[in-house]
């Protein structure tokens, strides 16, 4: 299975030179550490930063430099700071080429739920609803099952919806999943994980040939 860094490293293959990318809270923030060498990618944080770099080394953190998840970060030469109005103006005007989000649930038609659990305290929806409504490409990074061992890839979301039919790809510790008209499509398996195991942990409809390659990194 993939650990969190493995999920982020797999998603980093979606990056392209010149992309403007928004990384959500949690696993998505780790993608900043796996940008291919020589590739120019501008990372945008909705709390008002364009040009975010990788996480700082221990001992070199600047408490004034944080991302939307309140994690300390670094900035790259030429980075810029601005207010929330400017930040969400970028998002709503379609300037973001790729958005990587965490999720509580993803439905087999591409619906996503990631902002609220009824009866529980959640920090807030953040920019998720603006991002799913405006981003050109949305990739979800999440664990395949919840703490109770229940699948998070479902026939339909049971939690309040963030966005409808907007997710293009899902990456979990078990593999990489796309979508077709019937539901989830297994594109790649995590090393050592069988198709049967993935089917057992996926409650939504899952299409596969049984011969999907294991995830490889260049």
Write up this protein.
The protein has one domain: Glutaconate Coenzyme A-transferase, CATH 3.40.1080.10. By secondary structure, it is an alpha/beta fold. It has a ten-stranded mixed sheet, with helices on both faces. The protein starts with a helix and ends in an 11-residue tail after the last strand. The chain is 14% helix and 23% strand.
Short description:
By secondary structure, the chain is an alpha/beta fold. The chain has four helices and 13 strands.
Unreliably modeled segments = none
CATH topology: Glutaconate Coenzyme A-transferase
Radius of gyration: 17 Å
CATH class: Alpha Beta
**Terminal CA distance:** 18 Å
| CATH-derived architecture | 3-Layer(aba) Sandwich
Total count of helical runs of at least 4 residues? 4
Main sheet: which strands, in order across?
4-3-2-1-5-8-10-11-12-13
Percent in helix: 10-25%
Beta-strand residue fraction: 15-25%
Mean pLDDT: 91
Largest sheet: 10 strands, mixed
- Give helix and strand order, one letter per element, not per position: HEEEEHEEEHEEEEEHE
What is the number of independent domains?
1
> Based on CA inertia axes, which overall geometry fits?
globular
Strand segment tally = 13
Please describe the topology of this protein.
Layout: H1 4-11, E1 20-23, E2 42-45, E3 49-52, E4 75-81, H2 84-92, E5 98-101, E6 105-107, E7 112-113, H3 128-134, E8 138-141, E9 153-154, E10 169-171, E11 175-179, E12 184-189, H4 195-201, E13 206-207
Parallel strand pairs: 1-2, 1-5, 5-8, 6-9, 8-10, 12-13
Antiparallel strand pairs: 2-3, 3-4, 6-7, 10-11, 11-12
